[in-house]
Write a structure and sequence with these properties.
Shape of chain B: flat
Number of helices of chain B: 12
Number of strands of chain B: 0
Structural class of chain B: mainly alpha
Strand content of chain B: under 5%
Order of helices and strands of chain B: HHHHHHHHHHHH
Radius of gyration of chain A: 18 Å
Strand content of chain A: 15-25%
Strand order of the largest sheet of chain A: 6-7-8-3-9-10
Largest interface: A-B, 27 and 20 residues
Low-confidence stretches of chain B: 1-16
Oligomer: heterodimer
Largest sheet of chain A: 6 strands, mixed
Mean pLDDT of chain A: 91
Order of helices and strands of chain A: EEEHEEHEHHHEHEHEEHH
Helix content of chain B: over 70%
Distance between the termini of chain B: 12 Å
CATH class of one domain in chain A: Alpha Beta
CATH superfamily of the largest domain in chain B: MetI-like
CATH topology of one domain in chain A: Rossmann fold
Number of domains of chain B: 2
CATH superfamily of one domain in chain A: P-loop containing nucleotide triphosphate hydrolases
CATH architecture of the largest domain in chain B: Orthogonal Bundle
Number of helices of chain A: 9
């Protein structure tokens, strides 16, 4: 069985400053991988590289065994198979919830408007936002906006989801509603790569946890290994600070 | 989010002659003071001009009621052509400029030739005085006598206006496109939209909303610049006034034309201010999106 995503020797820098240095990652189908590490450690950049939103410098990324960094590959085709959700939601403020969710299905995937509408309605029903279908994003709470952003990504029926610190911009009491959506996706067998600061959630939902520090994976293992018995001093130090902050 | 101090946030001299709303509530006393000082200032200027020894002569030359009435039908007829030219040119400008701005916003080496072409065009056109562009196209192209190409000066005058204004308006659109946060583009692309789709559905609608005041400002400017095609002999309002002047040696027809341009442009200018103010208030009530 081939891995869903394979990252090989990935190198990426911004203006001469190395952000990712020789990163390797394997994600199996149906696997949930959590990326943890302090801000600036390269978690977001790694996700953006996988979504081809930023060009990479060296190394390779394979999805379903196919190199997606080949210049001959059409990035739009690759992105149509995966969804990404951002920290700042990035909903389109000039479109209603319905328009946000149906934009890609109708314009990219050529699904008839009526069917895309039905699909949007189904998603909203499932996540308890059916009454918000004709609202504009600025009328929704942060948690609702982020759930709509997840639905927008799901509407294209991806088989890989990337989450980039999706709860970091939320008020604490709104975090759970978003994390529960992700838990639901795990139960459905969605393959996910999740960059997060929610350690309790990572321990709970991840099949594999990767600790990223200064552009390299220092430690990778099951949640029990990483959170219960980290082997490196740097990992221990990071987790201790999280514990001290009352977040684990 | 911290709130900027009033003097930064309020509409400046450039966007509104009215003072910010909260200050308007200072009430009737302020209105009385404003009225009195206006009367004094305007009165002084009038007294100064009217007390000139040459005033009766100037009045005869520029503000003669008989000449005003006599020239009015021709000037008004010409002005109707100005309005038509404005309407046609404005629609074309908005469309052409948007296409130029979108091409300029495309990224990636594959689009380099297109981008370079657009940037070259904009630089070239913005470097030529609009009156020269009108003269060159209006007299130059018909002189070529090319088959199938119109040689009507009206056509080429309006074309020159469209070309010149498109270059400027493209830059207005570009500022709007740049004002939409990069994360919106990323969200669009991450959903599989192509560059053009992402511009069309995500960036441009937000960009246009951001630059409507600047576009309205361009409207006001174009309303008057359509008069420039008079140099080609097109019989619009200024040309009609010139003809009247040549016949009678009286300049009142020019004043009649000026009145018409004023009547047409002041409402648009006020509307632009009103819209800008309303938009500003609406954004503040919603906060940053």
């Amino acid at each position: 069985m081939t891995a869903k995503v394979e990252v090989r020797g990935l190198v990426k820098s911004y203006e001469g400053k190395a952000v990712l240095r020789d990163v390797d990652l394997d994600v199996e189908t149906h696997e949930v991988v959590c990326l943890i590490g302090s801000s600036g450690s390269g978690k977001s950049t790694l996700l953006k590289c996988i979504n081809l939103l930023v060009p990479i410098e060296d190394g390779d990324i394979l999805v379903d065994g196919v190199s997606i960094t080949d210049p001959m590959v059409n990035p739009n085709t690759i992105r149509q198979k995966m969804g990404i959700v951002f920290q700042a939601f990035n909903l389109f403020p000039h479109m209603t919830v319905r328009q946000n969710i149906t934009l890609s299905p109708t314009r990219v995937h050529g699904i008839p408007k009526r069917e895309a509408d039905l699909r949007a309605r189904d998603l909203l029903d499932r996540f308890g936002l059916a009454d918000k279908i004709d609202e504009y994003p600025d009328r929704l709470s942060g948690g609702q906006q982020q759930r709509v952003a997840i639905m927008r990504a799901l509407a294209t029926q991806p088989d890989l989801m990337l989450f980039d610190e999706v709860t970091s911009a939320l008020d604490p009491e709104l975090v759970a509603e978003v994390l529960n959506v992700i838990r639901g996706l795990k139960e459905e067998g969605m393959t996910m790569i999740i960059a997060t600061h929610e350690m309790g959630f990572a321990r709970d939902v991840a099949d594999k946890v990767c600790f990223l520090d200064d552009g390299v994976f220092l430690e990778t293992g099951t949640p029990a290994e990483i959170f219960g018995n980290p082997s490196l001093p740097r990992t221990q130090q990071f987790l201790q600070r999280i514990v001290d902050a009352g977040r684990l | 989010m911290s709130t900027p101090p009033d003097d930064i946030r309020g509409p400046s001299l450039w966007t509104s002659i009215r003072r910010p709303r909260r200050h308007r509530e200072e009430g009737a006393r302020g209105a009385i003071i404003a009225a009195i000082s206006t009367v004094i200032v305007v009165g002084l200027i009038l007294w100064w001009v009217l007390s000139s020894e040459a005033w009766p002569e100037v009045q005869q030359q520029f503000f003669n009621p008989d000449d005003f009435i006599a020239s009015w039908p021709d000037v008004l007829g010409g002005f109707w052509l100005n309005i038509q030219m404005f309407a046609v040119a404005e629609v074309l400008i908005l469309a052409v400029a948007l296409v130029l701005a979108m091409i300029r916003a495309l990224r990636g080496p594959a689009f380099f030739p297109l981008r370079a072409l657009v940037i070259g065009f904009i630089d070239l056109i913005r470097g030529i005085p609009i009156i020269l562009l009108i003269l060159l196209l209006g007299f130059g192209v018909p002189a070529l006598q090319l088959a199938g190409v119109p040689n009507n000066p009206l056509f080429w005058g309006v074309t020159a206006l469209v070309i010149s204004y498109s270059a400027y308006t493209a830059e207005v659109y570009r500022a709007g496109i740049d004002s939409v946060h990069e994360s919106q583009r990323m969200a669009g692309r991450s959903l599989g939209l192509t560059q053009v789709q992402s511009l069309r559905y995500v960036t441009v609608p937000q960009a246009i909303r951001n630059v409507i005041p600047a576009l309205l400002n361009g409207f006001v400017s174009l309303q008057k610049d359509v008069a420039l095609v008079f140099v080609l002999g097109v019989r619009e309002a200024v040309r009609e006034a010139q003809i009247y002047n040549a016949r009678t040696f009286n300049y009142t027809a020019y004043v009649a034309a000026a009145v018409l341009f004023l009547v047409a442009s002041v409402p648009v200018a006020r509307f632009a201010d009103w819209y800008t103010e309303r938009d500003r208030r609406r954004r503040q009530s919603v906060g940053t999106v």
